[in-house]
TrEMBL record, chain A:
Belongs to the HypD family. GO terms for biological process: protein maturation. It comes from the Bacteria. This is Hydrogenase maturation factor.
TrEMBL record, chain B:
Gene3D superfamilies: PurM-like C-terminal domain, PurM-like, N-terminal domain. This is Hydrogenase expression/formation protein HypE. It holds the Pfam family AIRS_C. Residues 46-158 form the PurM-like N-terminal domain. InterPro entries: HypE, PurM-like_C_dom, PurM-like_C_sf, PurM-like_N, PurM-like_N_sf. Belongs to the HypE family. Transmembrane segments: none annotated. Residues 171-323 form the PurM-like C-terminal domain. One of its GO terms (biological process) is protein maturation.
Length: 379, 346
């Protein structure tokens, strides 16, 4: 496959692996968090961990919007979809995410709620146009990458005079979550954060640029390298992180220079800031309440805000106390250290955020990498 | 004197409730459309059942329902699929398929023209395979009670003495052979989904595999431990199933697994793994190592097996993992698909 195979070349990978091996200091550990679920998925799918020296450890971060969506927001969506006049449009990977009491959108659909799986924001607009008598709601979710399409969708709905169309907004922000991983009240319970550097988001950074991470790198003294999603991108970025650690630097570097600039996509940023504003705080599954980490629609677009339109209320639900997602997301524990992992918590019946979608830390390990646990034990 | 009956208006007509009510209209639909398409001596007798002779050997029987959406796709339609799929389920036992039954659940308002196209391609697929559709059933349900058309087919075949293919016969060191490129059917269907449509030259691989199987059995006999066709859930689901049933693990080489570039590209775009995508004209055989090359050569000699490949082996593994060395140079598990990514593809 042209333009993809070039970034998956085995020979170049071996070369990079040799350089990483030669440059790492065998006396220390290198613990790097890849923030994005896309990175987690690529690491697992290509078996990238097998190419790295044993003292370079990848910690899978919370960068999967489906995983971090709290049960309370799913509950809100289910209650909304259960209203007879509502048609709820959602992305397919949200369907199985458990709310509280084990209910999901999939089970709500089985009980008669009108929930449609869509592949793009335009599908939802089409459904709204075809059913002017229904209250069509789009379940908007995602990081900075998917926010601009939602903004465009709202503009389109405005232009088309769609009177019974609205958006249930769950867009969240990457830098605030990285901040929370490094500094939040939770850390007092866990005691420490075992992260030496970050593999920064690829697609998110095409929108926001590399600039927003600079303050994080400075404040916490952690190197951040923005990396593409192809396996060679990631290996190169890991090498860049190793070098920064060795040299005692903590800068924001851009490996994904073929798509990411320092300032990002201004046009998309403007669209987003025209329509959305910061929430004071937003709940993340696994991280708890994170200040200034979520977006909502501005007052001027209140007619498109499902939370206003249907006076939706959020009732917080506590995460399962045995769930170790918080510690796993900070690199203090591994998925196998959690009592729930692979016992009551599996991709079929996920309990914690890390198991919810295939991009979550635990689900990726379960689906692609659990054979390594036994390999370790045997050795 | 015979009462006058207006001819079926195949071009513009539609199925209504009377076509399932047991009256003249139903008789007309059956004789005018289905008998015409399937034409054989058993159907012609018009009984509620068909009696047939079976040669020596044990009988094999299987049944399958087809609820695919859309009904028509590049490379076939629900009719040809319903014939191929059931023939393949019989053939995977190493058996020779002989007869099929077909049951139709039709939604009121379904076009006669579409029904005729579908019935004709069933007849054609059956004739090409040397198999007869000898009994059937037709039901019509009110609009909204079924999505256009569902077909169920049952297949009967005979198995030569001495053959008994089954998952628990797999042994450590057995080779895993696949008859050709993976993921064609599922990708072809997706490309025609209303909200997903994309342009591609990919066509479904839907085909009857019993001739290929006969060649393989002739070459390998009982050294073929088990055969399956990797339909829903793809190769991944099928090998995990065999791993559980045999108590073994599998180790695959990603580089050896045939996937067409167009399929790989479509899967890349949709975020799917070709190993999870359905096939309708491919088989996987677990074969004793000493006979694997002979069976592979037999496969390659048949047009439906010309891209056949040896993709890995059975290994001892208490955890029954299906593992794969990736073409990037690492390792990973090839797990079952969680949940349902693509509903109704067969």
């Amino acid at each position: 496959m042209k333009y993809a195979d070039e970034f998956r070349d085995k020979t170049i990978a071996r070369g990079l692996a040799r350089v990483i091996g030669a440059e790492t200091d065998s006396q220390r550990e290198y613990r790097f968090m890849e923030f994005c679920g896309g990175h987690t998925h690529a690491i697992s799918r290509y078996g990238l961990e097998d190419m790295l020296p044993a003292n370079v450890r990848m910690i899978h971060g919370p960068g999967c919007p489906v995983c971090v969506l709290p049960a309370s927001r799913i509950d809100m969506a289910i209650r909304l979809a259960e209203q007879p006049e509502v048609t709820l449009c959602v992305y397919g990977d949200l369907m199985r995410v458990p709310g509280s009491q084990g209910k999901s959108l999939l089970s709500a659909k089985a009980f008669g709620a009108d929930i449609r799986m869509v592949y793009s924001t335009l599908d939802a607009i089409r459904i709204a146009e075809q059913a002017p008598n229904r209250e069509v709601v789009f379940f908007a979710i995602g990081f900075e990458t998917t926010t601009p399409p939602t903004a465009v969708m709202i503009r389109l709905a405005e232009k088309k005079w769609l009177k019974s169309f609205s958006v249930f907004c769950n867009h969240v922000l990457t830098p605030s979550a990285m901040h929370s991983i490094l500094e939040s009240p939770d850390i007092r319970n866990i005691g420490r954060v075992e992260i030496d550097g970050f593999l920064g988001p690829a697609h998110v950074s095409t929108i926001i640029g590399t600039e927003p991470y600079e303050v994080l790198a400075e404040q916490f003294g952690k190197p951040i390298v923005i990396a593409g999603f192809e396996p060679l991108d990631m290996m190169q970025a890991i090498l860049m992180l190793v070098r920064q650690v060795n040299e005692g630097r903590h800068e924001v570097e851009n490996q994904y220079s073929r798509a990411v600039t320092r300032k990002g996509n201004r046009r998309a940023q403007e669209e987003v800031s025209d329509i959305f504003e910061l929430r004071d705080q937003f709940e993340w599954r696994g991280l708890g309440l994170v200040p200034h980490s979520g977006l909502k629609l501005k007052q001027a677009y209140a007619q498109f805000d499902a939370e206003m339109r249907f006076t939706m209320h959020e009732v917080r639900v506590a995460d399962n106390p045995a769930c170790e997602c918080g510690a796993i997301l900070r690199g203090v524990k591994r998925p196998v250290d959690c009592k729930l992992f692979g016992t009551v918590c599996t991709p079929e019946i996920p309990i914690g955020s890390c198991m919810v979608s295939s991009e979550g830390a635990c689900a990726a390990h379960w689906t692609y990498g659990r054979f390594r646990d036994y390999r370790l034990r045997r050795a | 004197m015979r009462a006058y009956q207006r001819k079926l208006d195949i071009k513009n007509g539609r199925v209504d409730l009377s076509h399932g009510a047991g009256g003249r209209a139903m008789a007309q639909l059956i004789s005018g459309l289905f008998h015409e398409a399937f034409g054989n001596e058993w159907l012609a007798r018009g009984n509620d059942q068909a009696a047939f002779d079976v040669g020596a050997g044990r009988m094999v029987m299987t049944t399958d329902g087809y609820v695919i959406s859309p009904l028509f796709f590049p490379g076939g339609n629900i009719g040809s699929l319903a014939v191929h799929g059931t023939i393949n389920d019989v053939a995977m036992g190493g058996a020779r398929p002989l007869y099929l039954s077909a049951s139709f659940i039709i939604e009121e308002g379904f076009r006669f023209s579409d029904l005729k196209t579908i019935a004709d391609s069933m007849g054609e697929a059956a004739r090409a395979a040397g198999v007869y559709i000898i009994t059937g059933d037709t039901k019509v349900v009110e609009r909204g009670k079924a999505d256009s058309l569902f077909i169920s087919t049952t297949g009967v075949g005979v198995l030569a003495d001495g053959l008994d293919l089954s998952a628990e016969k797999a042994r450590v060191g057995d080779r895993v052979l696949v008859s050709g490129s993976l993921g064609d059917h599922g990708t072809a269907i997706m490309s025609r989904r209303q909200n997903l449509a994309f342009e591609t030259e990919i066509v479904s691989d839907s085909a009857a595999l019993h001739d290929l199987v006969a060649l393989m059995v002739a070459a390998g006999g009982s050294s073929i431990r088990v055969m399956r066709d990797p339909t829903r859930g793809g190769l991944a689901a099928m090998l995990n199933e065999i791993a559980h049933q045999s108590g073994l693990g599998f180790h695959l080489q990603e580089e050896a697994i045939p996937v067409k570039p167009a399929v790989a590209a479509a899967c890349e775009l949709l975020g799917l793994d070709p190993l999870h995508v359905a096939n309708e004209g491919k088989l996987v055989a677990i074969v004793a190592p000493d006979m694997a090359d002979a069976v592979l050569a037999a496969m390659k000699a048949h047009p439906l097996g010309c891209d056949a490949a040896d993709i890995g082996e059975a290994v001892a593994d208490n955890h029954q993992f299906v593992q794969m060395s990736t073409s990037f140079g690492g390792g990973r598990i090839v797990d079952w698909l969680s949940g349902e990514q693509l509903p109704r593809i067969c």
